[in-house]
Amino acid sequence: MKTLLDDLYQRFLSHKGPILDTTIKVLVIFVVASIAWWIFNKILKTIKKRGMERPFFQKNEDIFVLISKAGHYTIVILVGVSLNNLADLPHIEKVFFALMILLLASFTNVFIRNLLPRLQETVFVRTKSKVDDVIFHLLKKFASVIIFITAGILALDVLGLNIMPFIAGAGVVGIALGFAAKDTLSNVLAGVLLIIDRPFEVGDRIEVWSAPANSATWGDVLSVGLRATKIRTTDNIVIIIPNNEIMLRDIINYTSGSKEIRVRIPVGIAYDADVNKAKEIINKVSHELEWVMDNPPPKVVVKSFGDSAVNLEARVWISRPRKRMDTISHITDRVKQAFHEEGIEIPFPKRDIYIKGNIT
Prior knowledge:
The protein is α+β, with helices and mostly antiparallel strands. It has helices spanning 2-12, 18-51, 55-59, 62-87, 90-127, 131-158, 164-180, 182-197, 243-247, 275-286, 324-342, and strands at residues 205-207, 218-224, 228-233, 238-242, 261-269, 299-305, 310-318. Helix 4 packs antiparallel against helix 5 (90-127) and helix 5 (90-127) packs antiparallel against helix 6.
């Protein structure tokens, strides 16, 4: 563009005054920019018309909006550079480039906000992880802040302003806020670690330590936030636990990894009862449940000898972890009924009392 202007100046404008020369050059710049703007819109309209016939562009129509913004911003930047070279004013040049940085930051922000949802869909389909929703939510929430803060710092630097005092002041304020909100920051840091480590995901069933008395002690994860995690217990009670407290405890996850878990059910029988028959009854009762697995099969072992009973333990694998308590309840109830029908005693503590001395 500059070469074209110089050529016009040498051929037709060498006899004019400097003010008229500058005015004509400015007009030529705007005329060329207008023509470029018109041509770009025509070409983009044609490409969009043909591209909308394809499924990819039908699903991603926002691509043309981004291309339009990129082309228009490019023309504006070229016009600004040409006018700046024509005026040759250093202070105006600094202001112009600072504005261009902010303009590019605005375009980058729009581009990122359109890109993240598509990345989210792609990653979600491939990983099948519900925690990715949390990660992308945080990215969408803080991406704009990071972009504009960075652009603001660069713009101030271009203007020649010393930004170090601002950064130092922000550091001091950050330290003060850190001490004032150390518990909140601790929970936020724990939330980030939970998102990175993924000891559980949204929808997993985990153990709850702070459940109200006489209520369910496990539940499903509803959401993992920066400050706290929400869990809905099997009693339909929502418990909000600070992330820092979760990180300090053992996390018991019943549904992570393999969906099969083993359930242990203690059963006591009298010393004079038939152990083998008791084992057969327990195995038979275990198979009444459809979610009890045949491979590996249920197993009953003698766990220990108690004061009044032989302590057996039924070990059954189930394919539905959320049926753990139902499994324990059903087998315990049916074993008691079956033992009663078969004459197998479930003992209670007994004491033999010996009296020494003469009885008168």
